[in-house]
TrEMBL record:
InterPro entries: MFS_dom, MFS_sugar_transport-like, MFS_trans_sf, MFS_Trehalose_Transporter, Sugar_transporter_CS. It comes from the Eukaryota. The chain crosses the membrane at residues 36-58, 70-92, 104-122, 134-151, 163-181, 187-208, 270-289, 309-329. Residues 35-346 form the Major facilitator superfamily (MFS) profile domain. Belongs to the major facilitator superfamily. Sugar transporter (TC 2.A.1.1) family. It is found in: Membrane. One of its GO terms (molecular function) is transmembrane transporter activity. Keywords: Membrane, Sugar transport, Transmembrane, Transmembrane helix, Transport. This is Major facilitator superfamily (MFS) profile domain-containing protein. It comes from Arabidopsis thaliana (Mouse-ear cress).
């Protein structure tokens, strides 16, 4: 199959672009029901919180080390223990979200984030500091999987890519905001500010719907169409979408019965796609992305560049990339966009 291009082909009908834009605007308008907007707000605040957590250590390094009399090793452990929590969260995220549902899992992640920020804000020694960071890591490990999954299960088909990309944009917003605020706000106050997204989310959780795909998975098929009607509008015809969800759920259940569950991924026929997926996910991490993010202050200062300049430049790049991702993901296609990104990296 011919590879999609980031730019429209000269042979394409010029009138297709306005029609596509009109269709996209129509999809956005139809999706703007109160339950979906609230659910998207919850997902966005979770992504914003993720960015705040990741961006916290870079601008606060010198002040935390000075106030708590920490060594370089102590602060390095504080920064890196987040990744330990991420691993723990990643190990349990799928089972937890399937066991208790998407909404209850969001409750758990936000409570962990709040406890983590309070532990950091009121820490008198490195132990409470590390505990707070570990809890945040577990939360981020769960929510980095759960957030995009929850939104994609609620969003209409044509908006799933853009909705997921918008969440990544909010990660950049949170990171950039903490880079900027960290140069002017004390580290304890910054930790209190970091709890705001979770405080916003908690009351909204009483009003957001459960994922219709999870409802179908746990045998609550009668609720699927009702949830879809609340998401798409009372006058929408959701019978086809509901039937598709139920049919796909039965197909997956049948596959689970006929196969070896998780270990079916390691069959020979899945070796190539599984390897490609793991490599694509691993490359940014192995390239030092987290190390750069956690220690931006030290990296720029060691090169003779002002850390404030480094924070500003990093924020601009993060925001620009996030906006481009939102605009291009549903226009250019996933594969072609991914190829272009990897081409620029190398």
């Amino acid at each position: 199959m011919a590879e999609e291009s980031l730019l429209p082909s000269h042979t394409e009908d010029v009138s297709a672009s306005p029609n596509k834009s009109s269709s996209l605007l129509s999809e956005i308008s139809n999706a703007s029901t109160r339950p979906f907007v609230l659910a998207f707000t919850v997902g966005s605040c979770g992504a914003l919180s993720f960015g705040c957590i990741v961006g916290y250590t870079a601008p606060t390094q010198s002040s935390i080390m000075k106030d708590l009399n920490l060594s370089i090793a102590d602060f390095s452990f504080f920064g890196s223990i987040l990744t330990v929590g991420l691993i723990l969260g990643a190990l349990i995220c799928g089972k937890l979200a399937d066991l208790v549902g998407r909404v209850y899992t969001i409750w758990i992640t936000n409570i962990l984030v709040l406890i983590g920020w309070l532990a950091i804000a009121f820490a008198k020694d490195v132990r409470l500091l590390d505990l707070g960071r570990l809890l945040q890591g577990i939360s981020v490990g769960i929510s980095s999987y759960l957030g995009p999954i929850y939104i994609s299960e609620l969003a209409p088909r044509n908006l799933r890519g853009a909705a997921s990309s918008l969440m990544q944009l909010f990660v950049g917003v949170g990171l950039s905001a903490f880079y900027a605020l960290g140069t002017a706000v004390a580290w304890r106050s910054l930790a209190i500010l970091g709890s705001i997204p979770s405080l916003v989310v908690l009351p909204l959780l009483f009003f957001i719907p459960e994922s219709p795909r999870w409802l179908a998975k746990v045998g609550r098929e009668k609720e699927v169409e009702g949830v879809l009607l609340s998401l798409r509008g009372a006058k929408s015809d959701v019978s086809d979408e509901a039937a598709t969800i139920l049919e796909y759920t039965k197909h997956v259940e049948q596959q689970d019965v006929d196969s070896r569950g998780f270990f079916k991924l390691f069959q020979r026929k899945y070796a190539l796609p599984l390897t490609i997926g793991v490599v694509l996910i691993s490359m940014p991490q192995l390239g030092g992305l987290n190390g750069y993010t956690f220690y931006t202050d030290t990296i720029f200062t060691s090169t003779g560049v002002s850390s404030d300049v480094g924070f500003i430049l990093t924020s601009i790049v993060q925001m620009t990339g996030g906006v481009l991702g939102v605009l291009l993901v549903d226009i250019s296609g996933r594969r072609s966009l991914l190829l272009k990104i990897k081409e620029k990296i190398f």
